[in-house]
Amino acid sequence: MSVLEVKELSKKYDNLEVIKNISFNVNEGETLVILGPSGSGKSTLLRCINNLEKITSGNITINGKEMIKEYKNSIPIYNDKKILNKINMDTGMVFQDFNLFPHLTVKENITESLIYVLKMDKKSAEDRACELLQKMGLINKKDSYPCDLSGGQKQRIAIIRALAINPKILCMDEPTSSLDPELVGEVLEVIKKLAKEKVTMIIVTHEIKFAEEVADKVIFMDKGIIIEEGNSNLIKKPKEKRTKEFLKRFLNV
Ligand code: ADP
Ligand code: MG
What we know:
- The protein is of the alpha/beta class.
- It has a domain at 2-99 and 169-247: 3-Layer(aba) Sandwich (Rossmann fold), CATH 3.40.50.
- It is built from 9 helices and 12 strands.
- The protein has helices at residues 42-49, 81-90, 106-116, 122-135, 151-164, 181-196, 208-214, 233-236, 241-251, and strands spanning 2-13, 16-27, 31-35, 57-62, 65-66, 68-72, 75-78, 91-94, 169-173, 201-204, 217-222, 225-230.
- Helix 5 packs parallel to helix 6.
- The longest helix has 16 residues, at 181-196.
- It starts with a strand and ends with a helix.
- The structure holds adenosine-5'-diphosphate and magnesium ion.
- Residues 42-43, 173 line the site of magnesium ion (MG).
C-alpha cells in the first residue's frame, strides 16, 4: 500500500520553477533515498510533503488523504483544516540543523507535541518519551538541555521527537550534514535501525555508502526533475549520464 503518492507535483518560487512535474510513490515499510546536487529541489520537495511549503500544481496524498481537494482556475485549493491536521500528524520531519527547542529539556522536547498536538496526558507522554530514549540509548540525557549535547546526540533526539508522534512517514533532510565526521556514524546507525524495523522513510543524503545499504528505492534528482529512479543497484549501476557524473565524485573519495 502506498503511504505517500506524489502526483505531477510542481513548485514555483515566483517565476522560478524548482520542482517540475514529478511523480513517485512510497509504500509502507519502504526507505526511499533521494540523491542529487545542491539546488536540485530536494529540500523543497520534502517541505512540500510536510506542508511547510505550498505547492503550485499536482497533488500529494498521505495515508489516503489528499492535500489538494480541487483546482479553481488552475489554483490549488488545499483540503479542510481537519484533514490537513491529520496529514500533518502522519508526517514527521528531521532537519539538517536539528531544530530542537533550546529552552526545553530533552524529555520536554519529545513530549511537547505529544501533549499539545496529540492531546496525550503528561504521564503517558513522558512514558512514551522515556521508552524511546531508552531504546536509543539516550535515557541518561532526558533532563539535559540541547546546549549540553553533542551534535550527534541532538540529531538522535530530533529523530526520536519526530518518531514519537508515530508518523506514517518520516522525512529526513540531510540528517548528518551538520555533524562533525566522527559523529555521523551514530546517527546513521539509528536510521539503519529504523529501516530494519520497517519505518517508512524518505531520506535526502550525500552518504552514498549508507544510501546503498538502507535504500529500497533511490531517486536521483537534478534541476527539479527525476533523472533516474530504481532500487539500490542504481547507485552501483547508474544508467543516465548525469547520475554517473554525480556519483563519480563520491566513488572516487
Ligand atoms: P536542494 O535541497 O536540492 O539543495 P532546494 O530545494 O533547497 O534544493 O532549492 C531548490 C531551488 O529553489 C534553489 O534554486 C533555491 O535557491 C531555490 N529556493 C529554495 N527555497 C527558496 C525560497 N524560499 N525562495 C526562493 N527560492 C528558493
Ligand atoms: Mg537541501
